[in-house]
Amino acid sequence: MQRNSMLFRLNQTRGSSLLEQNDVRQIPFVKCGYTWVSIMHKSSGGSRPKKKIYCREQELDRVMDLQKKPSLILKLKSIIQSQKHQSLRLRDLEKEVGFVQKWNYMAAIEKYPSIFRVLGGNGRPPAVTLTARAEKIAAEEVNAREQMEPILVKKLKNLLMLSVDCRVPLETVEFISMELGLPSDFKKSLIPKYPEFFSVNDVDGRVYLELENWDSSIVTTCREERLARERALETGGYPKKARISKDGNFPGPFAFHLSFPAGFRPNMSYLEEVQRWQKMEFPSPYLNARRFEMADPKARKRVVAVLHELLSLTMEKRLTSAQLDAFHVEYRFPARLLLCLIKHHGIFYVTNKGAKSTVILKEAYDGPNLIDKCPLLAFRDKFVALCGRREINSSIGTPS
Protein backbone atom coordinates (compact mmCIF):
# COMPACT_ATOMS: atom_id res chain seq x y z
CA MET A 1 0.00 0.00 0.00
CA GLN A 2 1.39 3.38 -0.95
CA ARG A 3 2.14 5.92 1.72
CA ASN A 4 -0.42 8.42 0.37
CA SER A 5 -3.22 5.90 0.77
CA MET A 6 -2.72 5.98 4.53
CA LEU A 7 -2.50 9.73 4.84
CA PHE A 8 -5.41 10.64 2.67
CA ARG A 9 -7.94 7.78 2.97
CA LEU A 10 -9.44 6.93 6.35
CA ASN A 11 -12.35 4.53 6.76
CA GLN A 12 -14.73 5.73 9.43
CA THR A 13 -18.41 6.55 9.86
CA ARG A 14 -19.54 10.10 9.28
CA GLY A 15 -20.32 10.77 12.92
CA SER A 16 -17.44 8.79 14.44
CA SER A 17 -16.23 9.74 17.89
CA LEU A 18 -13.59 12.43 18.05
CA LEU A 19 -12.30 11.37 21.44
CA GLU A 20 -13.14 7.76 22.25
CA GLN A 21 -11.96 4.51 20.66
CA ASN A 22 -14.68 2.21 22.09
CA ASP A 23 -16.36 -0.46 19.94
CA VAL A 24 -13.72 -0.40 17.25
CA ARG A 25 -12.38 -2.77 14.65
CA GLN A 26 -8.73 -2.95 13.72
CA ILE A 27 -7.47 -3.07 10.16
CA PRO A 28 -3.97 -4.23 9.13
CA PHE A 29 -0.99 -2.08 9.89
CA VAL A 30 -0.03 0.38 7.19
CA LYS A 31 3.20 2.29 6.86
CA CYS A 32 3.26 6.06 6.70
CA GLY A 33 6.15 8.45 7.01
CA TYR A 34 8.43 7.28 9.76
CA THR A 35 6.25 5.10 11.99
CA TRP A 36 3.93 2.12 11.75
CA VAL A 37 0.44 2.93 12.91
CA SER A 38 -2.73 0.92 13.31
CA ILE A 39 -5.85 2.75 12.20
CA MET A 40 -8.95 2.04 14.28
CA HIS A 41 -12.41 2.49 12.82
CA LYS A 42 -15.74 2.98 14.53
CA SER A 43 -17.98 -0.04 14.20
CA SER A 44 -21.31 0.59 12.50
CA GLY A 45 -23.21 -2.32 14.03
CA GLY A 46 -22.21 -4.86 11.40
CA SER A 47 -22.66 -2.62 8.39
CA ARG A 48 -19.65 -1.73 6.32
CA PRO A 49 -18.09 1.61 7.37
CA LYS A 50 -18.24 4.45 4.89
CA LYS A 51 -15.04 5.70 3.30
CA LYS A 52 -13.89 9.07 4.55
CA ILE A 53 -11.46 11.06 2.46
CA TYR A 54 -8.70 13.04 4.16
CA CYS A 55 -9.08 16.22 2.13
CA ARG A 56 -6.03 17.83 0.62
CA GLU A 57 -5.71 21.58 1.06
CA GLN A 58 -3.98 22.95 -1.99
CA GLU A 59 -3.05 26.29 -0.44
CA LEU A 60 -1.23 24.56 2.43
CA ASP A 61 0.42 22.15 -0.01
CA ARG A 62 1.71 25.25 -1.81
CA VAL A 63 3.57 26.23 1.37
CA MET A 64 6.08 23.51 0.58
CA ASP A 65 6.26 24.39 -3.12
CA LEU A 66 6.85 28.09 -2.45
CA GLN A 67 9.86 27.43 -0.22
CA LYS A 68 11.96 25.55 -2.80
CA LYS A 69 13.56 28.43 -4.71
CA PRO A 70 14.02 30.72 -1.68
CA SER A 71 15.69 27.82 0.12
CA LEU A 72 18.13 27.36 -2.73
CA ILE A 73 18.94 31.08 -2.95
CA LEU A 74 19.47 31.42 0.80
CA LYS A 75 21.68 28.36 0.98
CA LEU A 76 23.87 29.60 -1.89
CA LYS A 77 24.14 32.96 -0.12
CA SER A 78 25.33 31.22 3.03
CA ILE A 79 27.87 29.14 1.12
CA ILE A 80 29.31 32.24 -0.58
CA GLN A 81 29.50 34.15 2.72
CA SER A 82 31.29 31.23 4.39
CA GLN A 83 34.17 31.45 1.88
CA LYS A 84 37.36 33.24 2.83
CA HIS A 85 37.06 35.92 0.12
CA GLN A 86 33.23 35.96 -0.07
CA SER A 87 33.34 34.24 -3.46
CA LEU A 88 32.99 30.62 -4.54
CA ARG A 89 34.77 29.07 -7.48
CA LEU A 90 32.26 27.36 -9.70
CA ARG A 91 34.43 24.27 -9.87
CA ASP A 92 34.11 23.96 -6.08
CA LEU A 93 30.31 24.18 -6.08
CA GLU A 94 29.99 20.42 -6.49
CA LYS A 95 32.00 19.87 -3.30
CA GLU A 96 29.52 22.01 -1.38
CA VAL A 97 26.19 20.73 -2.71
CA GLY A 98 26.88 17.49 -4.58
CA PHE A 99 26.87 16.61 -8.27
CA VAL A 100 23.09 16.41 -8.73
CA GLN A 101 22.23 19.64 -6.91
CA LYS A 102 25.07 21.52 -8.57
CA TRP A 103 23.01 22.03 -11.71
CA ASN A 104 20.11 23.56 -9.79
CA TYR A 105 22.50 26.07 -8.22
CA MET A 106 24.11 26.83 -11.57
CA ALA A 107 20.66 27.55 -12.99
CA ALA A 108 19.91 29.89 -10.06
CA ILE A 109 23.16 31.80 -10.61
CA GLU A 110 22.20 32.35 -14.24
CA LYS A 111 18.54 33.14 -13.49
CA TYR A 112 19.10 35.72 -10.73
CA PRO A 113 21.79 38.18 -11.86
CA SER A 114 20.38 40.73 -9.40
CA ILE A 115 21.67 38.52 -6.56
CA PHE A 116 24.62 36.58 -7.98
CA ARG A 117 27.38 37.64 -10.37
CA VAL A 118 30.13 35.59 -11.97
CA LEU A 119 33.67 36.89 -12.03
CA GLY A 120 36.70 35.50 -13.88
CA GLY A 121 38.59 35.60 -17.13
CA ASN A 122 42.16 36.49 -18.05
CA GLY A 123 43.38 33.17 -16.72
CA ARG A 124 41.36 33.35 -13.50
CA PRO A 125 38.85 30.55 -12.80
CA PRO A 126 35.21 31.68 -12.81
CA ALA A 127 33.74 32.35 -9.38
CA VAL A 128 30.34 33.46 -8.09
CA THR A 129 29.83 36.24 -5.57
CA LEU A 130 26.99 38.44 -4.35
CA THR A 131 26.12 41.65 -6.19
CA ALA A 132 26.70 44.95 -4.40
CA ARG A 133 22.97 45.32 -3.72
CA ALA A 134 22.72 41.77 -2.38
CA GLU A 135 25.73 42.33 -0.13
CA LYS A 136 24.14 45.46 1.30
CA ILE A 137 20.95 43.61 2.23
CA ALA A 138 22.89 40.54 3.44
CA ALA A 139 24.67 42.79 5.95
CA GLU A 140 21.31 43.35 7.66
CA GLU A 141 21.30 39.75 8.85
CA VAL A 142 23.52 40.72 11.79
CA ASN A 143 20.83 43.05 13.10
CA ALA A 144 18.13 40.43 12.54
CA ARG A 145 20.17 37.89 14.52
CA GLU A 146 20.56 40.35 17.39
CA GLN A 147 16.79 40.87 17.49
CA MET A 148 16.27 37.10 17.45
CA GLU A 149 18.49 36.31 20.45
CA PRO A 150 15.99 37.09 23.27
CA ILE A 151 13.28 35.34 21.25
CA LEU A 152 15.46 32.23 20.89
CA VAL A 153 16.34 32.16 24.59
CA LYS A 154 12.63 32.17 25.46
CA LYS A 155 11.88 29.48 22.87
CA LEU A 156 14.60 27.21 24.23
CA LYS A 157 13.27 27.65 27.76
CA ASN A 158 9.73 26.81 26.58
CA LEU A 159 11.04 23.80 24.66
CA LEU A 160 12.71 22.39 27.77
CA MET A 161 9.80 23.23 30.09
CA LEU A 162 7.43 21.17 27.92
CA SER A 163 9.48 18.01 28.60
CA VAL A 164 8.94 15.73 31.59
CA ASP A 165 12.39 16.36 33.11
CA CYS A 166 13.06 19.86 31.76
CA ARG A 167 15.74 18.44 29.49
CA VAL A 168 15.97 17.41 25.85
CA PRO A 169 18.77 15.55 24.06
CA LEU A 170 21.12 18.06 22.48
CA GLU A 171 20.96 16.18 19.20
CA THR A 172 17.17 16.67 19.17
CA VAL A 173 17.59 20.42 19.63
CA GLU A 174 20.11 20.37 16.75
CA PHE A 175 17.58 18.41 14.66
CA ILE A 176 15.11 21.32 14.76
CA SER A 177 17.65 24.15 15.21
CA MET A 178 17.04 25.66 11.77
CA GLU A 179 13.26 25.53 12.27
CA LEU A 180 13.66 27.39 15.56
CA GLY A 181 15.97 29.96 13.95
CA LEU A 182 19.04 29.03 15.99
CA PRO A 183 22.45 29.92 14.54
CA SER A 184 24.50 26.98 13.28
CA ASP A 185 27.00 27.44 16.12
CA PHE A 186 24.38 27.89 18.88
CA LYS A 187 26.16 25.35 21.10
CA LYS A 188 29.13 27.72 21.30
CA SER A 189 27.62 31.14 20.70
CA LEU A 190 24.28 30.98 22.55
CA ILE A 191 24.12 28.24 25.20
CA PRO A 192 27.28 29.22 27.18
CA LYS A 193 26.12 32.84 27.13
CA TYR A 194 23.21 32.02 29.47
CA PRO A 195 24.50 29.69 32.22
CA GLU A 196 21.68 30.85 34.49
CA PHE A 197 19.18 29.27 32.09
CA PHE A 198 20.90 26.35 30.36
CA SER A 199 23.47 23.65 30.99
CA VAL A 200 24.78 20.75 28.91
CA ASN A 201 25.10 17.49 30.84
CA ASP A 202 25.82 13.84 30.15
CA VAL A 203 23.04 11.51 31.33
CA ASP A 204 23.58 7.78 30.86
CA GLY A 205 25.96 8.37 27.99
CA ARG A 206 23.71 10.85 26.17
CA VAL A 207 24.24 14.61 26.05
CA TYR A 208 21.25 16.69 27.16
CA LEU A 209 20.39 20.37 27.17
CA GLU A 210 18.88 21.07 30.59
CA LEU A 211 16.93 23.94 32.10
CA GLU A 212 18.60 25.43 35.17
CA ASN A 213 15.66 27.41 36.55
CA TRP A 214 11.93 27.17 35.96
CA ASP A 215 10.43 30.39 34.57
CA SER A 216 6.78 30.77 35.58
CA SER A 217 6.47 33.99 33.57
CA ILE A 218 6.51 32.15 30.22
CA VAL A 219 4.08 29.29 30.85
CA THR A 220 1.27 31.06 28.99
CA THR A 221 0.83 29.12 25.76
CA CYS A 222 0.56 30.61 22.29
CA ARG A 223 -3.04 29.37 22.18
CA GLU A 224 -3.86 31.29 25.35
CA GLU A 225 -2.12 34.40 24.03
CA ARG A 226 -4.28 34.25 20.91
CA LEU A 227 -7.43 33.85 22.99
CA ALA A 228 -6.40 36.81 25.13
CA ARG A 229 -5.95 38.92 22.00
CA GLU A 230 -9.41 37.94 20.88
CA ARG A 231 -10.77 38.77 24.38
CA ALA A 232 -12.19 35.26 24.64
CA LEU A 233 -10.82 34.81 28.14
CA GLU A 234 -12.61 37.92 29.36
CA THR A 235 -16.04 36.37 28.78
CA GLY A 236 -15.67 34.31 31.96
CA GLY A 237 -16.00 31.03 30.10
CA TYR A 238 -18.56 30.09 27.49
CA PRO A 239 -22.32 30.64 27.29
CA LYS A 240 -24.37 27.74 28.64
CA LYS A 241 -26.61 27.61 25.59
CA ALA A 242 -24.18 28.55 22.84
CA ARG A 243 -25.26 27.72 19.32
CA ILE A 244 -23.35 24.92 17.65
CA SER A 245 -20.94 26.45 15.16
CA LYS A 246 -20.79 24.96 11.68
CA ASP A 247 -17.02 25.48 11.58
CA GLY A 248 -16.39 23.87 14.97
CA ASN A 249 -15.03 27.03 16.62
CA PHE A 250 -16.17 27.91 20.12
CA PRO A 251 -15.59 31.03 22.29
CA GLY A 252 -14.24 29.29 25.38
CA PRO A 253 -11.00 29.37 27.40
CA PHE A 254 -10.16 25.75 26.50
CA ALA A 255 -11.00 25.94 22.81
CA PHE A 256 -8.68 25.58 19.82
CA HIS A 257 -9.03 27.46 16.56
CA LEU A 258 -10.35 25.06 13.92
CA SER A 259 -10.26 25.36 10.17
CA PHE A 260 -11.82 22.47 8.29
CA PRO A 261 -10.92 21.91 4.61
CA ALA A 262 -13.37 23.10 1.98
CA GLY A 263 -14.38 19.56 1.04
CA PHE A 264 -15.21 18.52 4.61
CA ARG A 265 -18.94 18.47 5.42
CA PRO A 266 -19.49 17.45 9.06
CA ASN A 267 -22.95 16.43 10.22
CA MET A 268 -24.66 17.74 13.36
CA SER A 269 -23.62 14.85 15.61
CA TYR A 270 -19.98 15.41 14.67
CA LEU A 271 -20.26 19.14 15.41
CA GLU A 272 -21.94 18.45 18.75
CA GLU A 273 -19.05 16.22 19.75
CA VAL A 274 -16.54 18.83 18.58
CA GLN A 275 -18.27 21.38 20.79
CA ARG A 276 -18.11 19.05 23.79
CA TRP A 277 -14.41 18.58 23.12
CA GLN A 278 -13.88 22.34 22.77
CA LYS A 279 -15.60 22.93 26.14
CA MET A 280 -13.60 20.26 27.96
CA GLU A 281 -10.96 21.51 30.39
CA PHE A 282 -7.44 20.10 30.14
CA PRO A 283 -4.13 20.46 32.05
CA SER A 284 -1.53 22.96 30.91
CA PRO A 285 1.10 21.63 28.47
CA TYR A 286 3.69 22.89 30.96
CA LEU A 287 2.54 20.52 33.71
CA ASN A 288 4.53 17.30 33.98
CA ALA A 289 3.06 14.61 31.72
CA ARG A 290 3.80 11.91 34.31
CA ARG A 291 0.88 13.20 36.37
CA PHE A 292 -1.70 12.12 33.79
CA GLU A 293 -3.01 8.84 32.38
CA MET A 294 -3.24 8.80 28.60
CA ALA A 295 -6.61 7.03 28.84
CA ASP A 296 -8.07 10.22 30.32
CA PRO A 297 -9.73 12.35 27.59
CA LYS A 298 -8.36 15.47 29.27
CA ALA A 299 -4.84 14.09 29.01
CA ARG A 300 -5.40 13.33 25.31
CA LYS A 301 -6.54 16.90 24.75
CA ARG A 302 -3.42 18.07 26.57
CA VAL A 303 -1.32 16.16 23.98
CA VAL A 304 -2.98 18.24 21.27
CA ALA A 305 -2.03 21.36 23.24
CA VAL A 306 1.60 20.19 23.50
CA LEU A 307 1.76 19.60 19.74
CA HIS A 308 0.21 23.01 19.15
CA GLU A 309 2.75 24.69 21.43
CA LEU A 310 5.73 22.87 19.92
CA LEU A 311 4.76 23.89 16.38
CA SER A 312 4.12 27.44 17.60
CA LEU A 313 7.73 27.67 18.83
CA THR A 314 9.09 27.19 15.31
CA MET A 315 9.52 30.12 12.96
CA GLU A 316 7.25 28.79 10.23
CA LYS A 317 4.92 26.82 12.52
CA ARG A 318 5.72 23.47 10.94
CA LEU A 319 7.92 20.42 11.51
CA THR A 320 8.49 17.18 9.66
CA SER A 321 7.03 13.94 11.01
CA ALA A 322 10.52 12.77 11.94
CA GLN A 323 11.20 15.94 13.92
CA LEU A 324 7.98 15.55 15.90
CA ASP A 325 8.75 11.91 16.55
CA ALA A 326 12.15 12.91 17.98
CA PHE A 327 10.28 14.35 21.00
CA HIS A 328 8.28 11.17 21.57
CA VAL A 329 9.96 10.19 24.86
CA GLU A 330 10.58 13.63 26.38
CA TYR A 331 7.04 14.86 25.67
CA ARG A 332 5.26 11.55 26.24
CA PHE A 333 3.55 11.58 22.88
CA PRO A 334 1.09 8.72 22.17
CA ALA A 335 2.18 5.72 20.12
CA ARG A 336 -0.25 6.64 17.35
CA LEU A 337 0.92 10.23 16.98
CA LEU A 338 0.12 10.42 13.28
CA LEU A 339 -3.43 9.24 13.90
CA CYS A 340 -3.81 11.96 16.54
CA LEU A 341 -2.72 14.59 14.01
CA ILE A 342 -5.09 13.31 11.34
CA LYS A 343 -8.02 13.09 13.78
CA HIS A 344 -7.56 16.76 14.64
CA HIS A 345 -7.38 17.90 11.03
CA GLY A 346 -9.04 21.19 11.91
CA ILE A 347 -5.89 22.15 13.85
CA PHE A 348 -3.08 20.37 11.99
CA TYR A 349 -2.46 19.59 8.35
CA VAL A 350 -0.22 16.74 7.21
CA THR A 351 1.24 17.24 3.74
CA ASN A 352 3.38 14.92 1.66
CA LYS A 353 4.60 17.73 -0.55
CA GLY A 354 8.36 18.02 -0.54
CA ALA A 355 10.94 15.39 0.33
CA LYS A 356 9.38 14.58 3.74
CA SER A 357 5.90 14.57 5.23
CA THR A 358 5.35 17.79 7.15
CA VAL A 359 2.89 18.82 9.88
CA ILE A 360 1.60 22.40 9.60
CA LEU A 361 -0.22 24.44 12.23
CA LYS A 362 -3.18 25.66 10.20
CA GLU A 363 -4.10 28.77 12.17
CA ALA A 364 -0.64 30.26 11.48
CA TYR A 365 -1.36 30.56 7.75
CA ASP A 366 -3.58 32.68 5.55
CA GLY A 367 -3.74 30.56 2.45
CA PRO A 368 -0.12 29.62 1.65
CA ASN A 369 1.33 32.63 3.47
CA LEU A 370 2.61 32.74 7.03
CA ILE A 371 0.74 35.40 9.03
CA ASP A 372 3.32 36.45 11.64
CA LYS A 373 7.02 36.54 10.81
CA CYS A 374 9.98 36.92 13.14
CA PRO A 375 12.87 39.34 12.34
CA LEU A 376 14.96 36.59 10.74
CA LEU A 377 12.15 35.59 8.38
CA ALA A 378 11.53 39.22 7.50
CA PHE A 379 15.21 39.59 6.58
CA ARG A 380 15.14 36.44 4.45
CA ASP A 381 12.04 37.65 2.63
CA LYS A 382 13.76 40.95 1.90
CA PHE A 383 16.85 39.23 0.53
CA VAL A 384 14.96 36.75 -1.66
CA ALA A 385 12.78 39.61 -2.96
CA LEU A 386 15.83 40.76 -4.94
CA CYS A 387 15.07 38.02 -7.44
CA GLY A 388 11.78 39.75 -8.30
CA ARG A 389 9.32 37.53 -6.42
CA ARG A 390 6.55 39.63 -4.94
CA GLU A 391 5.25 37.15 -2.36
CA ILE A 392 7.85 35.11 -0.51
CA ASN A 393 7.31 32.33 1.98
CA SER A 394 10.90 31.30 2.44
CA SER A 395 12.27 28.10 3.86
CA ILE A 396 13.78 28.05 7.30
CA GLY A 397 16.04 25.13 6.61
CA THR A 398 19.10 27.09 5.59
CA PRO A 399 22.48 27.33 7.19
CA SER A 400 23.20 30.34 9.36
Automatic annotation (TrEMBL):
Residues 56-390 form the PORR domain. It comes from the Eukaryota. This is PORR domain-containing protein. It comes from Escallonia rubra. GO terms for molecular function: RNA binding.
